[in-house]
Amino acid sequence: MGSTEATKSHAVCIPFPAQGHVTPMMQLAKLLHSKGFHVTFVNTEFNHLRLIRSKGPDALKGLPDFNFETIPDGLPPSDRDATQDIPALCDSTRKNCLAPFLELLKKLNSSGEQPPVTCVVADAGMSFGAKAARVLGIADATFWTASACGLVGYWQYAQLVKRGIIPFNDENFLTDETLDAPLNWIHGMSSAMRLKDLPRFMRVTDLNDIMFDFLKSEVENCMNSSTVILNTFDELEQQALDVISSKCRNIYTIGPLSLLGRHLPESNNHFKSFSSSLWKEDSDCLKWLDKRDPNSVVYVNYGSITVMSEQHLKEFAWGLANSKHPFLWIVRPDVVMGGDDSAILPQEYFEEIKDRGLVESWCSQDQVLLHPSVGAFLTHCGWNSTLESIIAGKPVICWPFFAEQQTNCRYACTTWEIGMEVNQDVKREEIETLVKEMMEGEKGKKMRKNVIEWGKKALAATEIGGKSYNNFERCMKEALHQDENFLTDETLDAPLDWIHGMSSAMRLKDLPSFMRVTDLNDIMFDFLKSEVENCMNSSTVILNTFDELEQQALDVISSKCRNIYTIGPLSLLGRHLPESNNHFKSFSSSLWKEDSDCLKWLDKRDPNSVVYVNYGSITVMSEQHLKEFAWGLANSKHPFLWIVRPDVVMGGDDYAILPQEYFEEIKDRGLVESWCSQDQVLLQPSVGAFLTHCGWNSTLESIIAGKPVICWPFFAEQQTNCRYACTT
């Protein structure tokens, strides 16, 4: 791998495994790639096979710097070409996907064939992605692929429970007027909202319902994320976005993504072979549309997940037929619950519609909606479909199915005034009436005019210099595209001889590691900046050090703080505890179970012969680094006591990493334990040196015990302690 490739930012993108999530994540991934990112796009194994069946193996061959990987979803294998059971899928991904995803990230980092992973962009329904990023200490961003108003709707879980609205006592709410209750108390949502317009997964009689619990958890994770990316634009959802921005640290509205994608370089023709469609698309329908008059066709598509009864399908069928308007109707093979759709629609139906209706199983929706002959869109109100209708300037007839589609529908019909709503218990007469009103009536004309205006605003937001365009640029620089060249060039070697109160031998790399940031909003940078300021403003500051060791630094601190007291090393000061306080011996501050057998092992060694190795309680490292330490210690031929915590390797099982032949090699001179009483070990006469991470307690304990140190600092001020230990 060349040096240029090695310094690229590497984004791993992982969508929730459903069509409406895969599509926008692919759009975002392509945009990141166009800005210089190396991209790894992660599908579930089930969806990977579906994509191959849909577009052929070439669709997932990738590029040298845009690769496809897979992880299992935890469900039993299946070759069914349909969306998986959503509750089962949600429950499985949150329980089973973290470990394989971490393993994949480790594989990517250790392969040497691509730059190390620098950020994870995870769908809001795949919060394990953000957890994995935090384990590895890399940037993460949560991609909310639905509407902002939908997110605010989901955020009402706690309020609905607090107000006694949910859980419902029984399912009578489905047939009485309960769901018609107004919800004009939700800050950030339209005053036209009714209970029925909140996301459908909130209609529960049991708070332990899988989808209710899953979305409650994932929405909380999203709102607590350091970075939230939304596929929307400010003018469309400003009220909801104001609420979200008051709760989240950093939000970036970068939509509509399909419009932002216009800025992809034309040279990226290879992207045309990439597909995010899980269904095989029919292109003949575009030729059929070419033969129709402008704005004459009703396009009907319920999305990739909606299912309905056989009766509802028939009501749609005859409502469309009776409207006498041309229509393109997408009927997925699995759209009827447990049915075979082709058998449901009789031959006489196709005879009736043959001159004006076309029924297909799937199509390229964005191309269809942009076709001049399409005049209206009968939709389930999924967010991608809603945005695509706005982009194309097509008014909508709304029949929401689940999730936040009900919320999108209400906004389309009241706030944005671009749609008409279909009753959930759909009847053919209603479909006929709504189609005629949309295609022929004054209300339809008004909605067409409104949606065209919204489309212009969407276009403006994604133009160069537009709000969404600028937000995307900011998102890359502030949250994702971290220029970490300073880690490999000579930047950190710069001398810092100008800091009053510090050694003149200090270099930039010797300052606390949390100051090495590419973003001043970095969590640890911001936290420590705030806490250090609080400390320096405190009325009294106590330090676990002694004057002769750090006089220069203490002089500066005492000039800034009102009262400082140096009372260390505390472990030596503790010698003055009354001997009668033997009950203190039962008190322990160790968070790890200590092994005492190592003290017996040390008793058998010669004085000053053993190297004691301990990285402290937080340090983590790569598998390769652990192996380098292992064989370096072994090859030194000196006895050693090596403390290897169970979690010292990032996402790994350390004992499995060290092979049996290693323990054979060191059996006469090396001992590996998981934890010990460090102060007792360092005071052992047989210990001659201490390989340490340079935490302050460890540094003081080495001084007390009179053991020189080999320093491998990990983070925080350990780099500073190391420099002082080695020079001052």
Automatic annotation (TrEMBL):
Pfam families the UniProt entry points to: Glyco_transf_N (PF26168), UDPGT (PF00201)
Keyword set, alphabetical order: Glycosyltransferase, Transferase
Record GO terms (molecular function): quercetin 3-O-glucosyltransferase activity; quercetin 7-O-glucosyltransferase activity
The keyword Transferase is assigned to this record: yes
Domain Glycosyltransferase N-terminal, residue spans: 12-141
Similarity remark: Belongs to the UDP-glycosyltransferase family.
PANTHER family: GLUCOSYL/GLUCURONOSYL TRANSFERASES, GLYCOSYLTRANSFERASE
Full protein name: Glycosyltransferase N-terminal domain-containing protein
Organism: Dipteronia dyeriana
